[in-house]
Specification:
five-stranded mixed beta sheet; seven-stranded parallel beta sheet
């Protein structure tokens, strides 16, 4: 084995046991570490910044197939281990592991830093409990060009393995604040000149009407609620408007991620059409 090859690791290694424990939220919070599985997530973690990717476990096949990712991981300061499929299966939280599992440092951003950057488009996840939905909304926000995502204290853990997988690497692309009370999130964003729109299927305002009125060209934060029951009345009351995505066909409703994508892309297009964002507090 050449000096550049990954270090073989025993299934009984304490490092394997420590990695396995990161599937549990209390250990993630204590160590401020989380799992990133698969080539896309590991590649993004390696490129995020030195020391973000702490360790990488790879099977022989994956190390050969993704040799460039192994090299990127080393360049990023990660310790790379060659592991058999049993080790990967023990660490992984998926049914069919892809042969690469990374351990990364937490990378959430303080909410104050997000406000200081004067964001133009933000997704606020309030009461979102399903990790897959949270990760998918984060991915939609990234694709639409949002500049930040905020998870309130009533929402799911950002570093849940299912949320990380569902983000498909977008977790490493834009600032994300976690554990922010929804009242604080709304107040802070409003003070930063951002209009607050609550997305709700029973909203008084229609998304098409908002677009037709030209009301969506300024900085905007969309507040998305729980998958099953939407937003509670007290959260809806915090918004400047409660907006529904119109259903033109016979579908009963849209799921959370689909509705989020429609809303975020509507804002992104309106902002581009307006020639840039002007704070809603400016005259």
């Amino acid at each position: 084995m050449s000096p550049a090859s990954p270090e073989p690791i025993s299934p009984r290694s304490p490092r394997v046991a420590a990695a396995r424990r990161l599937a549990r939220r209390n250990f993630r919070g204590k160590e401020r570490l989380f799992l990133a599985e698969g080539p896309q997530a590991v590649r993004e973690a390696a490129g995020y910044g030195r020391d973000t990717l702490v360790e990488l476990f790879a099977t022989v096949e994956a190390a050969e197939r993704y040799a460039e990712i192994i090299e990127e991981a080393r360049d990023a300061g990660a310790r790379v281990h060659l592991a058999d499929e049993q080790v990967i299966a023990e660490i992984s939280t998926t049914v069919t592991p892809q042969g690469l599992v990374g351990i990364c440092r937490f990378l959430d951003t303080p909410f104050e830093e997000i406000l200081a950057a004067r964001p133009k488009l933000v997704a606020v996840l309030a009461h979102v409990r399903d990790p897959g939905n949270a990760g998918t909304v984060l991915r939609c926000a990234d694709a639409a060009g949002a500049e930040a995502v905020v998870l309130t204290d009533a929402s799911v853990d950002l570093y849940n393995p299912k949320a990380v997988r569902a983000s498909v690497g977008s977790l490493f692309h834009l600032p994300v604040a976690v554990g922010v009370p929804v009242e604080q999130a709304v107040a802070g964003l409003r003070d930063a000149g951002v209009r607050i729109l609550a997305a709700d299927g029973a909203g008084e305002d229609d998304l098409d009407d908002e677009l037709d009125k030209g009301a969506m060209g300024g900085p905007t934060a969309w507040v998305f609620g729980n998958e099953a029951w939407g937003l509670p009345e007290e959260t809806r009351a915090l918004a400047d408007a409660v907006v529904r995505v119109p259903i033109h066909g016979k579908a009963e409703s849209l799921n959370l991620a689909t509705a989020a994508a429609v809303c975020l892309y509507a804002s992104a297009r309106a902002q581009r059409a307006s020639g840039g964002c002007r704070s809603v507090t400016e005259s």
